[in-house]
Design a protein that fits this description.
The chain is of the alpha+beta class. The protein has 3 helices and 6 strands. The radius of gyration is 16 Å and the shape is globular. Bound molecules: zinc ion.
Length: 157
C-alpha cells in the first residue's frame, strides 16, 4: 500500500483543501448524471499549468496496475484530496540505437464508473481502447523525445 506521505513537497495549494479526508467516500460527485466529469480534479491534482500538473502527478497514489510491460505501463491513480481518478499511460518507443528511447506519458481524468470498468480488463486493454475513453476530454501529456528536453502540455482531442 502506498501509505507514505504522498503530499510531501506539494505546493501550498494543498493547504486549501487538506481538510478533505484522504479516505473521502467513493461516489459520483465528480460526475454528471450522464457520466461526463463535472469539474475535473482540484488544485492538488489538476492545476491550471501543465508543468504543475505533471509535478502533481507523481504524488497521486497508484490505485491499480492495469498493464505492466516494460514499454507500455498503465496505472490508475486517484487524488487523495478530491477522489478524482486518472488513468496514466506510459509508452516508450524503441529505436534499438541506444538506451535513450523516446518516452511519452499521458494522464487522463476518468469517471469512477470508467475506473471501475478498466480494472477487470487489466492486461487485455489496448492503447486504442484507452484512447477511446472520454473522447474530447483534456489530457496531460508529457513527452521526452530522444535527445530533447522533456515538455508537459495539455492535449485537447
Ligand atoms: Zn484532486
Amino acid at each position: 500500500m502506498p501509505e507514505e506521505n504522498l503530499l510531501t513537497g506539494m505546493s501550498s495549494a494543498y493547504d486549501d483543501c487538506h481538510a478533505a479526508s484522504p479516505h473521502a467516500a467513493e461516489g459520483d460527485r465528480t460526475v454528471n448524471p450522464d457520466g461526463t466529469p463535472k469539474e475535473i480534479g482540484c488544485a492538488n491534482c489538476w492545476p491550471p499549468s501543465a508543468d504543475e500538473a505533471w509535478e502533481a502527478r507523481s504524488s497521486l497514489p497508484v490505485t491499480a496496475e492495469l498493464i505492466d510491460e516494460s514499454h507500455f505501463h498503465v496505472t490508475l491513480r486517484k487524488c487523495p484530496a478530491c477522489a478524482q481518478s486518472f488513468v496514466s499511460i506510459f509508452t516508450e518507443t524503441i529505436d534499438w540505437v541506444d538506451g535513450d528511447d523516446p518516452q511519452y506519458w499521458t494522464l487522463k481524468p476518468i469517471t469512477p464508473a470508467e475506473a471501475a470498468d478498466l480494472v477487470p480488463q487489466g492486461g487485455s486493454l489496448t492503447e486504442a481502447s484507452i484512447d477511446a475513453l472520454g473522447s474530447g476530454r483534456r489530457c496531460l501529456q508529457h513527452d521526452h523525445p530522444k535527445g530533447e528536453e522533456a515538455r508537459s502540455y495539455w492535449r485537447p482531442r
